[in-house]
Design goal:
This protein is an all-alpha fold. The protein has one domain. It contains 10 helices and no strands. The protein has helices at about 5-10, 15-25, 35-40, 45-50, 55-65, 75-95, 100-105, 110-120, 125, 130-145.
């Protein structure tokens, strides 16, 4: 099954956008699925504040696990991670014109009444699957560019 299909299935099983993306790559990144889902648990809904889309957060987690650095003095690794982050976010923003849940959903989901409006309008079903799909597509592009 493709990463995109796994991520879509994750979202349909009521995982958040971040969990859907990072969960699709868990084993490939050396994590068991449950650990990956726990790591992504607090990033859905733009960290519940309508900020950076969880699909972006999940994709950046994967990029960090696959292309990141861990040595304090690794300036090359730090620069490479910054480049991958910028590359991903620029491409994502180019597709959607935004990177925050507030802008993409058209509602501030940190406010209960606004979240309710977004739910009534079906915004989570119409926007989030596309955001997850595009995050995985862009992630695949970037991972395979080298």
């Amino acid at each position: 099954m493709s990463k995109k299909a796994i991520a879509e299935l994750n979202f349909k099983s009521e995982l958040n956008c971040c969990q859907s993306v990072v969960g699709a790559y868990a084993e490939e990144c050396g994590l068991d699925r449950n650990t990956a889902l726990k790591i992504g648990a607090c990033f859905g809904g733009g960290m519940k504040k309508g900020e950076v889309c969880g699909a972006i957060s999940g994709a950046l987690m994967v990029l960090g696990l696959k292309k990141g650095y861990f040595l304090e003095q690794d300036s090359h690794g730090r620069d490479r991670a910054a480049l991958y982050t910028k590359m991903f976010i620029d491409r994502y923003e180019n597709c959607f014109g935004a990177v925050t849940c507030k802008a993409m959903l058209g509602h501030d989901v940190s406010i209960p009444s606004e979240r309710a409006h977004a739910e009534m309008e079906g915004r989570f079903q119409s926007v989030c699957p596309k955001a997850i799909e595009k995050a995985v597509e862009l992630l695949e592009e970037i991972l395979h560019e080298e």
